[in-house]
Design brief:
single chain, 405 residues, alpha+beta, seven-stranded antiparallel beta sheet, 4 helices
């Protein structure tokens, strides 16, 4: 800490010159000098006198350039550290959202197996269940994929998964893509395959394109508004929503669209009697999260080992189901993968790989020894069986083994 010394100096002017000087000396205070003088007799009458106070620092104030640079450096470290937390927090938020929706959809899919037991006993809708029993001659389980939405969307191979396993739609009458997406449980629970987890804005209009008429349960839109592709109802597709804004701009009402006839949109719950519609927005459902099941039917009707696989924005592309050459070794966590051509498998740490021969899913912990045509993967758990084929599907959120059903 700097020490400060204060001193006072009185400056005096006289009517005449003072008397003879007895003694005079020069005193130095820091960077200041003060001359002290004594006289033979008292000086003459004072014309003017003022007191000047000065403060002298034993050390000069301020900082050096080195101190400034060090302060900037430390501040920079702090700002950079905080900046790196933002993308991490965004990533963690996305992961938490994926896992939340995936867990909800996993329990929803498992409930369908209790409601529709034929999904496992005869997923093709046939009454003969012996086709799906364990192969007693080889001891291999009968492995197939229960994929209602994929059976409707993958038009090039609706009945085959990866060209190696049967793909079934469940045999419960899901003959269209819309029906598969809207496959619901009793009481209008979320769809079996596609859960309407979010909505996208489809149509919006105001001003000169205001509704031509409206009531408490319907609104009529202008002819230039195209409603041909807006899904509605609760049986054939996931219903859309209509948001109605009041003419005061201070309120809105949201309703589920129950019917669209021409330019007339209808809903069931009436609006308040005093509500005047000025602006309308139509929101269509978007099924980001979907599931499929892989099933291993066991011998003698002893049950089926089921895994629910949940996707976020599933690609539904043929290359997503390509079978790759791989070497699963029973009891080993290491998986060697080989491929030909420029398209490498969609493997990554934290992703999943499907043993298409035995019907097991494994999480990839680490990717090592990667070359232009091969890679070595470290699996989260040892392989349950030997296999030479693997499928790497994109956008898998989680693979949930739900045990034997």
């Amino acid at each position: 800490m700097k020490r400060l010394r204060s001193y006072e100096l009185r400056v005096t002017s006289y009517e005449k010159e003072p008397l003879a000087v007895r003694h005079s000396s020069l005193v130095t205070l820091g960077s200041d000098e003060l001359r002290v003088t004594s006289y033979e007799k008292e000086p003459l009458a004072v014309r003017h006198s003022s007191l000047v106070t000065r403060h002298s620092s034993l050390h000069r104030g301020g900082v050096t350039l080195t101190e400034v640079l060090m302060s900037v450096l430390l501040t920079g470290f702090g700002v950079i550290t905080l900046a790196t937390l933002f993308p991490i927090s965004v990533q963690r938020t996305i992961q938490a959202t994926h896992l939340t929706h995936a867990t909800i959809l996993r329990y929803n899919a498992e409930a369908q197996l209790d409601i529709f037991p034929t999904l496992l006993s005869h997923p093709d809708g046939a009454t003969d269940v012996t086709t799906f029993a364990r192969n007693t001659s080889t001891g291999d389980a009968f492995v197939y994929v229960l994929d209602p939405l994929g059976a409707r969307v993958m038009t090039a191979a609706p009945n085959t998964f990866g060209g190696a396993r049967d793909r079934f739609d469940g045999g419960v009458g899901l003959t269209t893509e819309a029906a598969a997406r809207a496959f619901v449980t009793l009481g209008g629970s979320p769809g079996v395959v596609g859960r309407s987890d979010s909505f996208t804005q489809e149509k919006e209009f105001s001003g000169d394109a205001t509704p031509t008429s409206f009531s408490t349960t319907s609104v009529t839109l202008p002819a230039e508004v195209d409603l041909a592709n807006v899904p509605f109802g609760t049986t054939t597709s996931a219903p859309s929503r209509i948001v109605l804004f009041s003419n005061t701009g201070r309120g809105s009402q949201t309703r589920t669209i129950s019917d669209i006839s021409g330019q007339v949109i209808t809903w069931n719950t009436p609006l308040p009697g005093t509500f005047q519609v000025e602006k309308v927005r139509i929101l269509t459902p978007e099924s980001r999260y979907t599931w499929m099941m892989t099933v291993r039917n066991l011998a003698g009707g002893s049950g089926s080992q089921v895994t629910v696989v949940v996707f976020a924005n599933r690609a539904f592309a043929p290359e997503d189901e390509l079978v790759r050459q791989a070497s699963f070794v029973q009891g080993s966590n290491q998986l060697n993968v080989n491929w030909t051509g420029p398209t490498k498998p969609s493997y990554l740490a934290g992703g999943y790989v499907f043993d298409i021969e035995n019907g097991y899913w494994y999480m990839v912990q680490q990717v090592t020894n990667e070359t232009a045509a091969s890679a070595t993967l470290q699996l989260e758990q040892p392989a349950f069986a030997n296999s030479a084929s693997a499928v790497f599907m994109k956008n898998v959120v989680e693979a949930y083994p739900i045990g034997t059903k």
